[in-house]
Amino acid sequence: MSRIIVAGAGHGGITAALYLSMEGHDVTVYEKQEKDSVGLDQRDFLDASALDFAGIKIPEEFRAPGNSITFVPLEDDVAPVTLPSAGSYENLSVNRREFLAYLIGLAEQEGVNFVYGAPVSGPLMLGSRVAGIEAGGEKIYADLVIDAAGVHSPLRKNLPEFLGIEKEPAYYDILHTYRAYFDRLPDVQTPDTPYNIYVKEDGTQGFRWAITEKDKVDVLLARFPAMDYSDVAQGLFAVSEFNPQMDKNLSHGGHFADIPVRQPGAILIADGYAAVGDSAFMTYPLKGSGMAYAIKAGKILADAAADDIDGLFNAETLWKYQHDFFKEVGFAACRLAIIKSILPYMTAGEINEIFKRGLVSSEELSMLAGGTMPKSRILTAVREKLKIMGDIPEFRDHMTDILGWMGRFASVEATFPSKYSAESLHKWALRYNRFFDSIRKPPED
Ligand SMILES: Cc1cc2nc3c(=O)[nH]c(=O)nc-3n(C[C@H](O)[C@H](O)[C@H](O)COP(=O)(O)OP(=O)(O)OC[C@H]3O[C@@H](n4cnc5c(N)ncnc54)[C@H](O)[C@@H]3O)c2cc1C
C-alpha cells in the first residue's frame, strides 16, 4: 500500500483517487475550500462519454434534454447559426457543486479521505523527486502527489525548473471569465432562441452568452484580456440590451474564473508527481470544457499507477499515463488548439464574413465544439473553406497557416516517444513547446 496525496478536489484528481483507493492505496485529497463551497456555483455541460470511459455511473438527473446553441454574429444583417440540438455527442447538464459532491461521495465510499480548508502551497522536494506537499504550514510526505489544483496550481508553479514542466500559460492560453445568474422577469419578451453566444463588440478577443432558463438568465463574459468590474458592468449592459427578460439583480454566481484554452502541457509527470485536468491545461481548446478530459485523464492515471506493482511512481512508471493520455485525448486536443490559435489573428470582420457566407455549418461547429471532428475531416474542411473564401486574402492566409501548422504538428506527433527515457521526453517537449510558441500570436500592446 502506498501513500497518495491529491492536491485539490479537481475532477481528474477525484477520479484517480477513487480507483487508487480501490487498489488498496491510502489516498487523501487536500482541498483549499471548505466542504460546502467546493466547485463553481454554476451549471455546465459535460460530455457523457467521459463518465462511461471512467466507469462512473451516470445518475439520471444529470441527463439533459438536447440543447441548441445559437451563435449571434457581429452585424445585425447576418443570420445567427443554431447548432443541432442532438449534437455528435451526449451532453449531461450538471450543477457543478452537486456533481463534485457526487464524485466525492463515490470516492469516500471507496475509502478516500478528504481534508477541507487545506490550501497546498507547494511541493516538498527530495532531490529530484516530488516527495510530498506543504499545506497549511505542514510538511506532508507521500509516495505519489497528484496535482489536481486547477489552472493556477501552486504545486505546478513551484516545481523546480529542471523537471521541464511548464509553469505559466501564455496570454492567449487563458480565457478570463465572469459568470452570473439573474432572475428572469416574467411577461417580458425573450429572444427567439434560448442559448445565445454573442461575438459582438469583442470580435476575436472574447465572447458573451446569455442562456434563458425557466426562471433565470445565465450570463457568461469571456475574453483574453484581463477583466475587472468595470469590464463586467459594460459586458452585462451589452448582454442585457439583447435580453430584456434579464433582471438587474444578481440571483447567484457572480464570480471570476480562468479557463485554459490551449494544448495540454508537454510534460505531465515527474518522479513522484502527475498532473491532471486544468493543472496540466487539459481542456477542449475551442470552448474550454475541461471536466471530461480531466475525468478521462484521472482514469488513465489510475490505470497506469495500478500497473506499477512495485509502487515506484517515478517518471518511468508514470510514463504510461502521459503516453496513453496523449494517444486517447491529448493529440486530438492539440489539433483543436491549432485551429483555436488562428482566432486571435483574425479580425472581427473576418469572423462576421464567415457567418455571412454560411462558411461554417452547424454540424461542423457542433463537431468542433464537441472535439469529435476527425483529423482527416479537419483538413478537408479547411481546404473547402479555402476554396469558398479564397477571394479574401487575409482569410486565405489564415487557412493556409492552419494547413501548414497541421503539417508541422504531424511531425511533432510522429516523434512522440514510444518508450520512456528522460532525454527523449525532454527533447520531444522542447519540440512540442517550440511548435506552439511559434504559432501563438504575441499579446496586443
Ligand atoms: C465559466 C466557466 C465555464 C465552464 N464551462 C464548462 C463546461 O461547460 N464544461 C466543462 O467540461 N468544463 C467547463 N469549464 C471548465 C472546467 O471548469 C474545468 O476545466 C474543470 O473544472 C476541470 O478542472 P479540474 O478538475 O482540473 O480542476 P478544478 O475544477 O479547477 O478544481 C481544482 C480544485 O483545486 C482546488 N485548489 C486550487 N488551489 C488549491 C490549493 N492551493 N490547495 C488545495 N486546493 C486547491 C480548487 O478549490 C478546486 O476545488 C468551465 C469553466 C469556467 C470558468
Descriptive account of the structure:
The protein is α/β, with parallel strands linked by helices and about 450 residues long. The protein folds into three domains: about 210 residues, 3-Layer(bba) Sandwich (FAD/NAD(P)-binding domain); about 90 residues, D-Amino Acid Oxidase, Chain A, domain 2; about 100 residues, no CATH class. About 40% of the residues lie in helices and about 20% in strands. A seven-stranded mixed β-sheet has the order 5-4-13-14-15-12-16, covered by helices on one side. A hairpin with a 3-residue loop joins strand 14 and strand 15. The longest helix has 28 residues. It is globular, with a radius of gyration of 22 Å. The chain binds flavin-adenine dinucleotide. Flavin-adenine dinucleotide binds next to helix 1, strand 3, strand 12, strand 16 and helix 6.
Question: Secondary-structure map with pairings?
Answer:
Elements: E1 3-7, H1 11-22, E2 26-30, E3 43-47, H2 48-54, E4 70-72, E5 81-82, E6 91-95, H3 96-109, E7 113-115, E8 120-126, E9 129-135, E10 138-141, E11 144-147, H4 154-157, E12 174-184, E13 195-198, E14 206-212, E15 216-223, H5 229-242, E16 246-260, E17 269-270, E18 273-275, H6 291-307, H7 315-342, H8 348-356, H9 362-370, H10 375-389, H11 393-414, H12 422-439
Parallel strand pairs: 1-2, 1-11, 2-7, 4-13, 11-18
Antiparallel strand pairs: 3-6, 4-5, 8-9, 9-10, 12-15, 12-16, 13-14, 14-15, 17-18
Helix pairs in contact: 1-3, 1-6, 2-6, 6-7, 7-11, 10-11, 11-12
